[in-house]
Structure formats: structure tokens, C-alpha cells
Amino acid sequence: MKISREVKTAVLVLSGIALFIYLFSYLKGEDLFSNTNIYYTEFDYNALSASSSVTVKGNKVGKVEDIRYDFETGKTRVSFSVSPKLKFSKNSVIRLYETGIMGGNALAIINVNDGDIAKPGDFIASEVKPGLITSLKSNFTGISSDLDSTIRSADTLMTNLNKLVVDESEEGIKSTIAELNGTLKAFKNLSYSIQGVLKDNDAKIATILENFEKTSKDLSELSAELKQVDLTKTVDNLNKTLTGIQDIMASIDNSEGTIGKLLNDDSLYNNLEAASKEMELLLLDIKLHPARYRRILSKKEIPYQPPTEDQKN
What we know:
Elements: H1 5-27, E1 37-43, E2 53-56, E3 59-70, E4 75-82, E5 93-98, E6 105-110, E7 125-128, H2 132-164, H3 170-200, H4 202-228, H5 231-253, H6 257-264, H7 266-288, H8 290-294, H9 309-312
Parallel strand pairs: 2-6, 5-7
Antiparallel strand pairs: 1-4, 2-3, 3-4, 5-6
């Protein structure tokens, strides 16, 4: 059968058109002969591009098919396709994340193993993971402020150093550096001296620490023994003793008993005072008339005469 030239030309044109469509789709990342399932999600803004990757645990399993703005909700609606072999829950999360420093973005399926498998055409919830560039952009104001503060502090430090250097000539700067060097050497020598003192007194310091440890141990044991002592019983006994003393003092104050009567009855004091006065008169009479008492066995009686006021004095 002879094929006409027109048919050959038509077949060639149609083949060229099909090849062009296939190559164009291939360059867009689409495979006309692959079978995929389409799912949907949405974000508050668009950070994706057509053919952006869809991954699971870092492995590419699909791509973004279409990105459209929803005029009713004000959000970006994204449709993506994955291999039919991939099974994931419809309660999973579609995470938007940065793929690198250059700013590329992709979608990751964070699967939830709850057994409720998603079906083609289902809507999957989404979230955005802040990346390095996003964090730097959000914190750039604080970083720039801190950098500006650091630069100002460095400038102030250099200004103060310039004020310290009175002679700004080369010799003056050398002299200042030499003084600083001497100061540093002095500090270095001081540190060596302190180290030497510590080294020489190492045994003493060790003894002091050992004694301190022993003292703390003794105090710990003493505190433990005090905890074991029945302080409550001791306090109760002391309280009973004080109560008994208070009762005795109350009895004495109320003139009860011999001691109370002796302390509160004036008759004993008056009798003692009278006896003391008579004893004083007796001693005075012995002093004035000793012969009377030397002849105590004599039959001759010497009458008693009370002493005069001059004799009393």
C-alpha cells in the first residue's frame, strides 16, 4: 500500500507536536507516562514554585503540580502529586521548609501512623518550619543593633586608650607599651609568688582542710546525737520542776508552813530584836561591873543599876 506524501507530512507534524509537548513537560518536571495521586494543602503565603519537590524523610516522592490564590480565604492553595505507592494518614502534616541557603523551598509529608489512610483529592493540613534565612531575616534588626553597640564600645575603648597616651609620638607609644609590659610582668611575678606560697604551705593547707573536715564530721555526729535525745521529755521535766518551785514560793508568800511564817510574821523579828537588846545590856553591865560577876557565888548581892546614857555611849 502506497502512503501518500500528505499523510506522511501529517504524521511527521503530529509526531513533532507530540515530541514537543513531551519535551516541554519533561523540562517542567512532569512525566506524562507516570501515574500519580493528587492531594491539596494551603499556606498563608506562597514560597513555592511549580515542580517543587515533595519529600518523605528527605526522599523525593512527588512534586508540586499547581499553585493558586484563593480569593475567598486569602490563602495560597497548593496541589501536589505523589507516587501511588506512598500511603500516609490524612491526619498527617504538610511542612513547608527551606532546602538550602540559596532559598529553595519544598514540601515534606510528616506522616502520622494512625491507620486512617489519605485518599486522592483529600485536603492535608500544613505548617511552616522557620529556616536559617528566615531566622536571620527576623533577627537581623537585633543583630545589627548588637553589632552597632559593639562597634561603639570598641570606638569608646580606643578613644580612652588615646587619652591615656599623653605623648602620641612614636616614642611615647613605645613608652606606654613598655609600662604596660612591665605591669603585666609584675602581675606574672605576683602569680608565681602566690603559686610558690601555696606550694610551700601545701601540707599546712592540707592539714587545715583535714581538720575542718574532721570538725564538720564531729558536728554532724553531734547534731545526730542531739536529734536522738528526747528533748521533749527533758523540757517536760524542767517545766514540772519550775511549777513545783512556783508552788513553794506561793506557799511561802501566803505564810504557809514554817518558812512562810518565819518570813512573814513580825513577832519573830520583834523577839529577836528584844533579845538582842537585852544581850547588849548584859554585855554592857559585865563591862561596867565585872566584880559583880566575879563574886557570883558570894552571898553578898550587888543590886543592878541600869547604865546611864553616857555609859551606853
